[in-house]
Amino acid sequence: MTATTDPHGTTHPTGPTEPHDGRAAVADGDRSTRAAVATMYRLTAGHRGAIAVATVLTLVASALGLAQPLVAKHVVDASGRGQVIWPLLALLGALFVAEAATGSVGRFLLERMGEGVVRQLRHGLVGRLLRLEMREYGRHRGGDLISRVTTDTTVLREVVSQALVDLVTGSLVAAGAIVLMAWLDPLLLLLVAGTVAAASVVVASLLTGIRCASERMQDSVGAIAADLARALDALPMVRVHRAEEREAAGIGARVEAAYGAGVRTAKLASVMSPAVELAVQGSFLIVLVVGGLRVNGHAGSLGDLVAFLLYASYLVLPLSSVFRAVGLIQRGMGAYRRIEEALGLPVEPSAPLVPGVHAHTPQPARPSATPEQSASDQPTPEQAALALRDVRFGYDPERPVLRGVSFTVAHRQHVALVGRSGAGKSTVFALVARFYEPDAGTVLFDGRPATELTRDACRRRIAVVDQNAHVVHGTLRDNIAYAVPDATEAEIRRVMELARLEEVVARLPGGLDTVVGEHGSTLSGGERQRVAVARALLARPSLLLLDEPTSHLDAINESALIGVMKDVAQECALLVIAHRLSTVQHADHIVVLHDGRTTAAGRHEELLTGSALYRELAASQMLRPGGVTASGDGAGATG
């Protein structure tokens, strides 16, 4: 996979993009066995010592095995001459035991090495997938990415722990057996070589097909994981719409595709294995017949024939291991292609986008509170906790979302962001959180362009509570303390009180140590929202982003949260996506977005008289100063 770097220092792949069905479309590249072996060998970097020891032990075990036919030859010859054979039998037994013990140790070292390679790959994949650019999560399905960490790495474990060493040791052992067979009877060896060559031609013709079928199978398995994860994540919706059978049928089609590819792989493998076995067995029969005739004709001894037959039978294991290793390596390349593609996806840069600027310059002191500032008396960008200057952005360059957004948020100021659905409010949050970079314009934190800061430095300044409050599997304490794992009990209790969570904790059987289930399934929507608020406050940000924070709250809890927001505004700046009257009317400053542009800004009363769009929003959502909405909560969709 090739890549390019844009002016901001962000790396983007330039290879073919992933098709809509989730399967990766990459170039085939060099599919030769030599290239595949070289690739698998590179994976073992850092484990070469273990491989060397295991290879030596395996070769020693093989040498002990190769010595056994020679001892057997002497046993037969000595028995024919009436000599004592028990010392030779004892030696034969000792060779057998030593071979088993040495081979066992070598195999253990290889298995451990294989697990180490898989561990290293999984660490790399997990770290990579958690740091991908946000655009990549829209281009790749989550379940398929997870499959690359689990299923694909498991396939590679067998390749690196067995196939590489089997290929080397099998080749050397086969070569040793062939040398000894040539020493015993060159004519019989030529007959064996002819049958083995025929088997090699058959195996070589099957390898490309095995790799292609394996790649299709791995892609299908990844698609199964992606489709199943999608269905399980939306299970309530699936059941309410009675779509279980439809989803099962869709996933079943993926299962059938994996089955078909697996059957094709098995079909090709089933042809390859008998070809090898028939070649070796055919060699054995030819040697038995021709060698027997030669012994009867006194062209060789019976001991020589026994030894040659044993070596011919010993060729079965090393040759089978060589051919099996080659096939396994080709199957492993299908899994490795998917892993390599994931490791090549672009991640967020850790350095500032503007080179040569220190990311951790001390922040300027926060100015005094500015709740009295109006539209005409806003702080300059250099004085603000956050400022946007003519920011433009589009997820698709051909379809801009923000077309020129400018506003400031002073320290300890409550700013509301309003507008119709699709106006760009949530996109503003995504840019402030630095999930994406503006196509034009500037985002500033404490008067400094975000491009001069690392993403980590920017995110240390902020906390986010979005509309879909994220609660992960674990205890309530784990979720509240997610951003500050070492928070004290007093700090956790403080944010619990601010978020009005005391009653929730009291209701749960284990209190703070209650497991809240997958996606916080044991909590209501409003309770999950308050958990997210508590988690954000625990980090003590200088800027708190709230995406419609009262959307899941009843009137009582909404009133409580408004009080929390007033308290929080004394500690940090607030930028709130708002529709409800209670959120808007208490804001120090309101910014109106329309069609990706800032069209008006000011206080609630000022905008009612000075902005036609705001008056329209107020009329449609019953935003009136000093009262509750006539229809209830007055919530609207966020953009």
UniProtKB/TrEMBL annotation:
It comes from the Bacteria. Residues 370-381 have a biased composition (Polar residues). One of its GO terms (molecular function) is ABC-type oligopeptide transporter activity. Residues 386-620 form the ABC transporter domain. Residues 1-29, 354-381 are annotated as: Disordered. InterPro entries: AAA+_ATPase (IPR003593), ABC1_TM_dom (IPR011527), ABC1_TM_sf (IPR036640), ABC_transporter-like_ATP-bd (IPR003439), ABC_transporter-like_CS (IPR017871), P-loop_NTPase (IPR027417), Type_1_exporter (IPR039421). Pfam families: ABC_membrane, ABC_tran. SMART domains: AAA (SM00382). Belongs to the ABC transporter superfamily. Lipid exporter (TC 3.A.1.106) family. One of its GO terms (cellular component) is plasma membrane. Residues 1-17 have a biased composition (Low complexity). Its main location: membrane. It is found in: Cell membrane. Residues 52-331 form the ABC transmembrane type-1 domain. Signal peptide: none annotated. Gene3D superfamilies: ABC transporter type 1, transmembrane domain, P-loop containing nucleotide triphosphate hydrolases. It comes from Streptomyces cyaneochromogenes. Residues 18-29 have a biased composition (Basic and acidic residues). It is a multi-pass membrane protein. This is ABC transporter ATP-binding protein.
